[in-house]
């Protein structure tokens, strides 16, 4: 199971990236420059995750060279990290750089569980950040195209579907990582991960479809509805006194950013039972 989660993450990442590229080419060939520009613009927020990856490489003591910078410029930085399993002897640890994922995937044994967990944490956090900043806007845009502009559009539909699946799996892999962090917890079985994937996919799919249909009927009023939801979630997070970020300014910024995420999905950021918080989230969201 340790290697299955990163392999599936890589597969979905490759499929999503390929479908996004096909959508960009599709709009360019058909002369739909407006949708081409918007789809291309959805790539820009993803550079935040690439920048964070470079900063982590520097923090690990690994000086980014031209090749590494080129990979991140092409948004392939996660492929450098993206499949941490048992590292080979001689490969760098979490605190000394990262091994190439294709080398790591072929490794059979070796390394400690702490190093493995640290590498897995890097990838899960970076992938979740990239999914929320890049995949989610692309999903909204392609879903709107399919619903309101070109219902018979095959390539936008496939791209939207793969983006939805990839975003849902990014949330599942993050939950899988947080589960491994708890003392005494083992890797969840495949059936549990499948149920989580179905839950996340259904939750995200219905939320995105509802917002797109509302935007089609009421145009820009959708921003007002989403803005009210964002404010409610941000104030709710502030009332919980989430102590992940110590500095007051950064704490407020964190709550605002997470409040925007809560417009679409719930992410547990506090230790302990979350049943009450999930119930409140769904009560407000519905």
TrEMBL record:
The keyword Transmembrane helix applies. The lineage of its organism: Eukaryota, Metazoa, Chordata, Craniata, Vertebrata. Coiled coil: none annotated. Keywords: Cell membrane, Membrane, Transmembrane, Transmembrane helix. It comes from Tychaedon coryphoeus (Karoo scrub-robin). Belongs to the XK family. InterPro entries: XK-rel, XK-related_scramblase. The keyword Transmembrane helix applies. This is XK-related protein.
């Amino acid at each position: 199971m340790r290697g299955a989660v990163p392999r599936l993450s890589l597969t979905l990442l490759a499929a999503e990236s390929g479908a996004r590229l096909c959508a960009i080419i599709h709009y360019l060939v058909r002369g739909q420059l407006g949708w081409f520009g918007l789809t291309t613009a959805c790539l820009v927020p993803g550079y935040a995750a690439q920048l964070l990856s470079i900063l982590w490489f520097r923090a690990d003591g690994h000086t980014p060279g031209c090749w590494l910078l080129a990979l991140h410029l092409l948004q392939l930085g996660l492929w450098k990290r993206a499949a941490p399993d048992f590292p080979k002897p001689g490969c760098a640890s979490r605190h000394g750089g990262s091994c190439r994922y294709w080398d790591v995937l072929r490794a059979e044994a070796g390394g400690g569980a702490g190093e493995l967990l640290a590498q897995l944490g890097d990838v899960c956090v970076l992938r979740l950040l990239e999914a929320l900043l890049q995949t989610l806007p692309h999903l909204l845009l392609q879903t709107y195209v399919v619903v309101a502009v070109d219902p018979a559009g095959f390539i936008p539909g496939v791209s939207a579907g793969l983006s939805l699946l990839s975003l849902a799996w990014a949330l599942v892999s993050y939950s899988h990582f947080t589960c491994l962090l708890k003392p005494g917890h083992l890797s969840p079985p495949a059936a549990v991960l499948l149920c989580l994937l179905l839950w996340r996919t259904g939750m995200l799919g219905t939320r995105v479809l509802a917002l797109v249909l509302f935007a089609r009927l009421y145009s820009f009023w959708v921003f007002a509805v989403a803005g009210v939801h964002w404010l409610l979630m941000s104030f709710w997070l502030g009332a919980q006194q989430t102590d992940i970020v110590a500095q007051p300014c950064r704490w407020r910024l964190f709550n605002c950013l997470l409040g925007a995420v809560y417009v679409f999905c719930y992410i547990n950021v506090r230790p302990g039972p979350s049943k009450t918080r999930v119930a409140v989230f769904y009560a407000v969201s519905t």
